[in-house]
């Protein structure tokens, strides 16, 4: 059993007869009243995100997990296929278990979180950023660029990302996988 002081991003807990992964948390100590922890939890079975507030010192049941490196192979509709980079065994996961599936390209190495008790895959963690090639974007229009002007671009995986006006088709860009935002242009 863990307490609210053990809460951290990525921790898997048993809550309301389901397993949830903590995706955001905030310890709050108001001027009046007891401290509490405001959390955003994502169900690893359904992908549903819920907000919950735990009072300080509340007991939570954490789930023992293992992490393994898997290589993304391909997808068939809603089913995504991965291969373990150590023993070459393959697993299939539904789109709900993936956080940023639209930014995954074939061959990408990801971290799969597996429940130690029943060896079931719980979720997939992407690397902090990925480098993808821009396949389609409109030419930048000069004009009112006193602030950060952006335009939509489509990358090789089909995801749409807002990029600065100087990005052209064929450029490689680094994308933050957590927010799905452009970080920088990558030179070969």
From TrEMBL:
UniProt keyword terms in alphabetical order: Cytoplasm, Elongation factor, Protein biosynthesis
Cited CDD domains: S1_EF-P_repeat_2 (cd05794)
Domain Translation elongation factor P/YeiP central: 67-122
Entry GO terms, CC: cytosol
Chief location of this protein within or outside the cell: cytoplasm
Annotated localization: Cytoplasm
Protein name: Elongation factor P
GO molecular-function term, one example from the UniProt record: translation elongation factor activity
Function: Involved in peptide bond synthesis. Stimulates efficient translation and peptide-bond synthesis on native or reconstituted 70S ribosomes in vitro. Probably functions indirectly by altering the affinity of the ribosome for aminoacyl-tRNA, thus increasing their reactivity as acceptors for peptidyl transferase.
Pathway: Protein biosynthesis; polypeptide chain elongation
HAMAP family for this protein: EF_P
Entry annotated with the keyword Membrane: no
Gene Ontology biological process terms in this record: peptide biosynthetic process
PANTHER family reported in the protein's UniProt record: ELONGATION FACTOR P, ELONGATION FACTOR P (EF-P) FAMILY PROTEIN
Gene: efp
Family annotation (SMART domains): EFP, Elong-fact-P_C
InterPro entries: Elong-fact-P_C, NA-bd_OB-fold, Rib_uL2_dom2, Transl_elong_fac_P/YeiP, Transl_elong_KOW-like, Transl_elong_P/YeiP_cen, Transl_elong_P/YeiP_CS, Transl_elongation_fac_P
One Pfam family linked to the record: Elong-fact-P_C
């Amino acid at each position: 059993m863990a307490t609210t002081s053990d809460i951290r991003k990525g921790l898997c807990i048993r809550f309301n007869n389901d397993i949830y992964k903590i995706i955001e948390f905030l310890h709050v100590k108001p001027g009046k009243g007891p401290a509490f922890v405001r959390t955003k939890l994502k169900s690893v079975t359904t992908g549903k995100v819920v907000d919950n507030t735990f009072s300080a010192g509340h007991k939570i049941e954490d789930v023992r997990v293992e992490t393994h490196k898997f290589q993304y192979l391909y997808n068939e509709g809603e089913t995504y296929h991965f291969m373990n980079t150590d023993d070459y065994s393959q697993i299939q996961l539904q789109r709900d278990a993936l956080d940023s599936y639209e930014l995954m390209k074939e061959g990408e190495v990801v971290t799969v979180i597996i429940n130690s008790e029943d060896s079931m895959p719980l979720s997939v963690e992407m690397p902090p950023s990925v480098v993808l090639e821009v396949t389609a974007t409109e030419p930048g229009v000069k004009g009112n660029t006193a602030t950060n002007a952006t335009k939509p671009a489509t990358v090789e995986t089909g995801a749409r990302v807002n990029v600065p006006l100087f990005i052209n088709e064929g450029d490689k860009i680094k994308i933050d996988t957590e927010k799905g935002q452009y970080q920088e242009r990558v030179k070969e």
